[in-house]
Amino acid sequence: QVQLVESGGGLVQAGDSLRLSCADSGRTFSTYAMGWFRQAPGKEREFVAGIRWTNGNTNYANSVKGRFTISRDGADYTVYLQMNSLKPEDTAVYYCAATERDYFTAPTTPASYDYWGQGTQVTVSS
Questions:
Q1: What pLDDT does residue 1 have?
Q2: 111 phi and psi angles, rounded to 5 deg
Q3: Buried b (16+ CB within 10 A) or exposed e, 21-36
Q4: Residue 103, pLDDT score
Q5: What is the CA radius of gyration of the chain?
Q6: What pLDDT is recorded for position 27?
Q7: For position 37, what pLDDT does the model report?
Q8: Which of 103, 96, 107 is closest to 24 using CA atoms?
Q9: 19, 58, 59, 75 — which has fewest CB within 10 A?
Q10: What is the spatial distance between Cα 32 and Cα 12, in angstroms, rounded to a whole number?
């Protein structure tokens, strides 16, 4: 059973960096892809970044491309989201997700994912 636990959120200033972690406490990672999503108050959940577990292929939302980096550590069953040059509009609850369905690249729609973490708050002040 995949059990995702996020950590690393917090309150930072614009321009700062944060690194989010998502660990599979069940240590299964029987997944084909992992994704990071975020949801700001009053807005829909949106795709941020994804990584295909087997070959490490990554994809990003245009809004974070060049600033955020997703990576994985297979030995620790952990996925990371390194967030640099943070902006106030990055403020949201960030969720990691896993899918056991095979896709060529990590999917960008929430419905494509089978498991979700509880979320971690990221707040960027101006």
A1: 75
A2: -65, -15
A3: bbbbeeeebebbbbbb
A4: 83
A5: 13
A6: 63
A7: 98
A8: 96
A9: 75
A10: 32
| pLDDT score, position 126 | 94
- Report the relative pairing of strands 68-73 and 92-99 from DSSP bridges: unpaired
Nearest to 78 by CA among 1, 16, 123, 26: 26
- Span 37-88, pLDDT tens digits: 999 999 999 999 999 988 889 999 999 999 999 999 877 788 999 999 999 9
Within the chain, strands assigned E span 4-7, 10-13, 18-24, 33-39, 46-52, 58-60, 68-73, 78-83, 92-99, 115-116, 120-125
Q: Phi and psi of 37, rounded to 5°?
A: -125, 165
Closest CA to 81 of 44, 27, 42, 117: 117
Cα 20 → chain centroid? 8
pLDDT > 70 fraction of the chain, expressed in percent and rounded: 97
Q: Which of 64, 1, 66 is nearest to 35 (CA)?
A: 64
